Amino acid sequence: MEQLLFINACVRGERSRTLKLARRFLENWQRNHSDGVITQVDLCKDRPVPQYPEVLAQRDELWNAGKLDDPMFDLARQFAAADRIVVAAPFWDLSFPAILKIYLERISVTNITFGYDEQGNNVGLCKADKLLLITTRGGNFSLPETTWMEMGARQLEALCAMYGIPSFQCLAAEGLDDIRNDKKAILAEAMGRADAMAEVF
Question: Is 9 left (phi over 0), alpha (psi -120 to 50) or beta?
Fold first, then answer.
């Protein structure tokens, strides 16, 4: 039984184009994996606390005491144990919403999601072999002249390397705020790609 972890960072909720695309993918993934289990982390509902000084102090105290089974590390352990991971986050300010950054800081825990070998090299500790970012972008940031400005997918891809997740994939619908484009056609095409990706993810 495959465990798919769905991290929902769609701040606009039901109005979110990214969430619509993610749900299309998840529905088809479930259809193709009848014994699979999807667990959602809704960041707007669950609202993990940022690592303010007092939070970080508590975290450090627990980590130094070897108490990695403390509830503070629940999100990290959940992430590390998942077979597949899907992150849905709109493209905001060249990256993604702050709630996702908070989540990523909370799950980046040495000896849970990553660690180091005797030579000091990074060793990923996550079980998943695939992570998919689903996003929608107002402009087109896959062009040679704009790709350098895209920071969200690049950060997640780098974190996959740190976490030991070998395959990073991105499903993006782009140009949705360009008045010259047919928004419905762009989303329809992305939905088709979501269907295809769900069959093999």
Answer: alpha
